[in-house]
């Protein structure tokens, strides 16, 4: 893991908060001590189970995953984070307790390590940012509720369609076994779903 001298004014990180949270350049200049850009390699761990989560991670470029391990060492993927996504364990930070999860790079990536003070001070300096953070929290709760509902009540096909809607850019970037793990199904079941959807598309084209 190496620090990189990316100009924050030209970064996706700055553009993201400027557009989404109306965070001005003047406010950003007061926050530069609370974030850093770092290059990480494929399979590098940003967080391991048992550690305290000290940062939120913004994906400037590349791809991360969050997952847990069962007693047999099997991965259960909770989330993917491609470009312009933020990933962390908020519960570990908020309650100051060791995390149960891992965060790892699937691709060589440039990641912004964001200290908690960034969010706190930005919210104090900008009302628009504070509103953005509140909306983000509510949106994350909604997404987690959807995720739980999909695992409990949706068919494998419905879960896959939801995945395609949420992560359209990842279908060619992520191995099939990882997608199956995220969906909570076997790779064989995922292959059947993909064949079924392909057959449906061909049938629909034939009716046009």
Report on this model:
There is one protein chain. The protein has helices at residues 12-21, 25-29, 90-95, 116-125, 127-153, 156-166, 176-183, 187-207; strands spanning 2-3, 35-40, 45-47, 56-61, 64-69, 75-81, 86-87, 102-105, 109-114. The chain contains 8 helices and 9 strands. The strands form 2 sheets. The protein has a 5-stranded antiparallel beta sheet with strand order 1-2-9-4-7. The protein is an alpha+beta fold and 208 residues long. The chain has a domain at 2-126: Sandwich (Jelly Rolls). A hairpin with a 5-residue loop joins strand 5 and strand 6. Helix 4 packs across helix 5 (127-153). It holds the Pfam family cNMP_binding. It comes from Sphingobacterium chuzhouense.
What is the typical, i.e. mean, pLDDT? 93
Can you list the strand order of the major beta sheet?
A: 1-2-9-4-7
Report on the biggest sheet.
Answer: 5 strands, antiparallel
Uncertain runs with pLDDT below 50, 5 residues or more? Answer: none
**Total helix count?**
8
Oligomer: single chain
The succession of helices and strands, N to C, reads: EHHEEEEEEHEEHHHHH
The CATH homologous superfamily of the domain at 2-126: Jelly Rolls
What fraction strand?
A: 15-25%
Structural class: alpha+beta
CATH architecture of the domain at 2-126: Sandwich
| Radius of gyration, in angstroms, nearest whole number | 19 Å
What's the CATH class label of the domain at 2-126?
Answer: Mainly Beta
Estimate percent helicity: 40-55%
Termini separation: 53 Å
